[in-house]
Recover the amino acids of this structure.
């Protein structure tokens, strides 16, 4: 069965970076993409971007441009999302999701991980 | 960006009730509308894609409809396991956006 496993939590100081991993199993990693979505406390979902598991092509939401990097390791079927220059507003649950879009012309997150809680605290 | 507006933001219902959640897009999205169920602490679950296509394994009491800018999610007979938060999301553009969510609570 499709599974995406994420670490449970990370605590970071303002100005630091966080790199969240997402290990996929149960499907052919290179046939899909990975979307990243975050949810701040008490808020709805905010899509952050996507990476192709096939080509490594990325799409990032403009507000994160310049401080976000998404990568994949096809050897281990793992995706990573790094967010730099963290502020208190980046405190959120960060989800990875398998995405049916592998070329980037159509995106549909289907199976999601349970999320990684990133807390930014001084 | 396409704005997605859900209503109501919350509702109370009883087991066996029929409920409907609506989602309105700020522009025509040609049925590129998906519905997710989220129980806090769990992974969100895709229920319906492309407005009305039920995902494999999702009970048939869930259905979706709509066109243009207006879409609905209906649960025909609410079950205890359906109490959750439901989100719509558009895939018309590759800048994905979500509705604010509808919390379905037990009356």
């Amino acid at each position: 069965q499709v599974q995406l496993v994420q670490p449970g939590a990370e605590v970071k100081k303002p100005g630091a970076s966080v790199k969240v991993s997402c290990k996929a199993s149960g499907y052919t990693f290179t046939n899909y993409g990975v979307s990243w979505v975050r949810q701040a406390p008490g808020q709805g979902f905010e899509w952050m971007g996507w990476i192709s598991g096939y080509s490594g092509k990325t799409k990032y939401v403009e507000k994160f441009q310049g401080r976000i990097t998404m990568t994949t390791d096809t050897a281990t079927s793992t995706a990573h999302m790094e967010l730099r220059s963290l502020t208190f507003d980046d405190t959120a649950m960060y989800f990875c999701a398998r995405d049916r879009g592998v070329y980037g012309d159509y995106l549909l997150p289907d199976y999601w991980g349970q999320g990684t809680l990133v807390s930014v605290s001084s | 960006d396409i704005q997605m507006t859900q209503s109501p933001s919350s509702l109370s219902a009883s087991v066996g009730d029929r409920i409907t959640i609506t989602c309105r897009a700020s522009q025509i999205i040609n049925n590129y509308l998906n519905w997710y169920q989220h129980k806090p602490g769990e992974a969100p679950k895709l229920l319906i894609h492309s407005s009305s296509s039920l995902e494999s394994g999702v009970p048939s009491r869930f259905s979706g409809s709509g066109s243009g800018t207006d879409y609905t999610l209906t649960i025909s007979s609410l079950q205890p396991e359906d109490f959750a938060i439901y989100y719509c999301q558009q895939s018309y553009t590759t800048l994905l956006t979500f509705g604010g969510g509808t919390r379905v609570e037990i009356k």
Q: What stands out?
A: Chain A has no helices and eleven strands. Chain A touches chain B at residues 4, 35, 44-47, 50, 59, 61, 95, 97, 101, 104-115 (CB under 8 Å). Chain A has a mean pLDDT of 97.
